[in-house]
């Protein structure tokens, strides 16, 4: 039984590009625009192997003379993470590894993630300026060839629940969705002391339910 699965439906936003080669097999990356019921969108990174069924489906589109960008697709796969050194700092890179891709005729706004893992970060609770309670966590998920460490956010009653009843090392099963979120990061100051701000994007699982 898999420890995690993600299912998405959205619109292909960028053309797949080769990002790495492993054992002679190319790996591709593209971005998928996944709509929310609120009419906002999450722009999520999707990767897939050149030896996968996902690659075959997208290749068949081009063989038929159809554009990949703009296609509505459904994806089934897993969330994958790795530590990547960038500008002398370690950055957690999060992506969705697509094992299966299906061409759709209708955008169903689907975004579902289910994981079973272990709490790998102290569960501190905080309030936003609007009074919303939040807990940020890292969930460690084992697989046959390694582990993934998924950034996870809990809200309001669910945040209070995990903060009060769970601890680092506990095994936990969660249901939620993947979201993209932009934030401002100060990376230094200019010659007169003004802050230099860089807009960054993080990808995290927003939890809807904790299974007990």
| Gross morphology | globular
Poorly predicted ranges (pLDDT <50, ≥5 residues)?
none
Number of helices: 2
- Structural class comes to mainly beta
The gyration radius over C-alpha positions equals 19 Å
Mean pLDDT: 92
What summary fits the major beta sheet?
Answer: 12 strands, mixed
Approximate strand percentage: over 45%
The span between the termini is 18 Å
Oligomer: single chain
Q: Helical percent range?
A: under 10%
The helix/strand series, from N terminus to C terminus, equals: EEEEHEEEEEEHEE
Number of strands: 12
List the helices and strands and how they pair.
Elements: E1 4-12, E2 17-22, E3 25-35, E4 41-49, H1 53-63, E5 72-86, E6 89-103, E7 111-119, E8 125-127, E9 133-143, E10 146-155, H2 156-165, E11 171-189, E12 195-211
What does this structure look like?
This protein has helices at 53-63, 156-165; strands at residues 4-12, 17-22, 25-35, 41-49, 72-86, 89-103, 111-119, 125-127, 133-143, 146-155, 171-189, 195-211. The chain is mainly beta. The longest helix is centred in the N-terminal third of the chain and has 11 residues, at 53-63. The chain starts with a strand and ends with a strand. The model has no long low-confidence stretch (mean pLDDT 92).
Characteristic terms for this protein:
mainly beta, 63% strand, single chain, 12-stranded mixed beta sheet, 12 strands, globular, 212 residues
What is shown here, in short?
By secondary structure, this protein is mostly beta strands.
